[in-house]
Amino acid sequence: MEVNLTHNFGMDLVRVTESTALTAGRWMGRGQREEADRQATKAMYHAINTLDIDGHIVIGEETRLGDDSPLSRGQRVGTGRGPQVDVVLDPVDGVNLLVNSRPDAISVAAIAPRGTMWAPYPAVYMYKIVVDRETAPHLVPECMDAPVAWTLGLIARAKRKHVRDLVVFVLERPRHQELIEEIRIAGARVLIRSDGDIAGALMAASTHIDVDVMMSIGGIAEGVIAACAIKGLRGGMLGRLAPQSEAEKAAILEAGLDPGQILSCDELVRSDEVFFAATGITDGKLLSGVHYASEHIRMESIALHSETGAVRVVQTAYLVSW
Q: Whole-model pTM?
């Protein structure tokens, strides 16, 4: 039975992502990827455990930090005194962006009632297409297998644009070379980023940012977190498992998962009681990053609640004591 989350956990999650961003921001431009990730993970672990929830991490950090990560799959988080919830977290979406001083590194967290988030263990990767609320009614399962030009034509018609005016977010990966070439041949423009799967999905789902669609193969965890945000933004999303090795494909089949199943946003997260928060770490299209001044630290966050459609942009200043 689905739990009714009557408390506004959105602002609670903002405090979690703010605390994480405060720590992560100190690692901007320092080139120390693993240490930045570990310190941000520690900060998020301590922050999430202050929330009055009985949380269960459904997809964790073990693929990056190993099974000893405090935010790995199956870990219990929160004080245990609140509702039973599924939890997905990413202390730094775009660690490479952070340590190389590039835009749109963010910290994110989301919760939904227990048992409502898709958790296809042991799968690691999925293919995702994300659009905003204007295009969402036109996003059909056929888009997952159709030629890229056909899908972009459909999106262009929905947005009343020429294909040449579309911007497509794609992760910079060798596996995407053919996809990028197809997008270019179709005539659309490509925004290529080395990291930032969740940020890319948020850009595509936001009506005020000049990104029309995200097409990429990325992590399962990032896909489920993105789905939580997209539900709040009323955007559209399609996802399907995309194993990147024979070993991953064999593990998926052994677990009884269907690699051909196409899932909508509402199937990735089967609840309307979803809370999502993100805080900027480095400046970008999506959010301002953390700024350290002599007397205060400034940051910008977003909080979403899927049931009400509330979108809160939060600007916070912490006074600094010397």
A: 0.93
